[in-house]
Design brief:
By secondary structure, the chain is mostly helical. The protein has one domain (about 10-70). It has helices at about 10-25, 35-70. The radius of gyration is 21 Å and the shape is elongated. It holds the Pfam family DUF2164.
Length: about 80
């Protein structure tokens, strides 16, 4: 199976790095530098991201199947 790569826009990536640094500072009372935050973000994206992505795909699939079933309910009946 091909490894999934989640790519983020530069501004989104920078925001997430800052969010991780802020989280570590506030919740863990630890200082996390840019490099550490970027490595942690890469780990999350590469190892946790695909699971979250797949949940979104499954949810979308279920939603679309429900809509198709609704559409089939609109069929005209022949006499």
């Amino acid at each position: 199976m091909k490894k999934m790569e989640i790519e983020l826009k530069k501004d989104i990536r920078e925001q997430l790095v800052e969010d991780l640094k802020r989280y570590f500072s506030k919740e863990r009372d630890e200082e996390l530098g840019n490099l550490g935050a970027e490595l942690l973000l890469d780990y999350i994206l590469n190892n946790i991201g695909p699971y979250i992505y797949n949940i979104g795909i499954t949810d979308s699939y279920k939603y679309m199947n429900e809509r198709v079933e609704d559409l089939l309910g609109l069929e005209k009946r022949f006499r």
